[in-house]
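user: can you give me the structure for this one chain? tokens are fine.
assistant: on it. calling the predictor now.
[tool input]
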Amino acid sequence: MILPATLRFALMAALLLPMGCATVPGNAPEPKTASSAPLLTRFHLTGRLAADDGEHRFATAFSWSHTPSRAELSLFSPTGQTLARLTLEDGNATLATAEGERHETDAATLLEPLLGFAPPPLPALTAWVQGDPGPVPDRIERDESGRPYRVWHSGWIVTFDSWQDARPRRLTIERGAARLVLLIDGWSSEP
């Protein structure tokens, strides 16, 4: 399936969210202990994202529901129409667009050709959106309040740009030329 360039980049931007990634060895110092608050296994968040790969830029609204057995990411047009929906459930991935659906047993297999690069791992991303440095970060810088400010993880650099209460409000996630900015508008502990 060949997707229009705009939709392809939208998927690239948004699909950075839920997939695995290649490990880049690092020589960073030992990480500090992650925050003591337990991570939520069930949540729903809404917001906006902007992506830039050095050649293309894209912005969209998104909705992400996450449970231990299912994750669903939806991308929306400026008028609220669903552009794409990625669903991960029971070890299967489904990508639904206006052109139809594709199914794979591995989401990375489904998305790697569209992305052209390996996105951040889901366990790290689910931690980052909750304000946690994630599983086994390479390095952490903390702000004066002790919250993560910048995290290095397998070649990705995550900057917690701003906070609202105990949750990040804005995150910048970068690796090489790939840059994803998440602005989280709404949080719920139930999907």
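assistant: here you go. Helices lie at 5-15, 107-115, 122-128. Confidence is low (pLDDT under 50) at residues 9-36.
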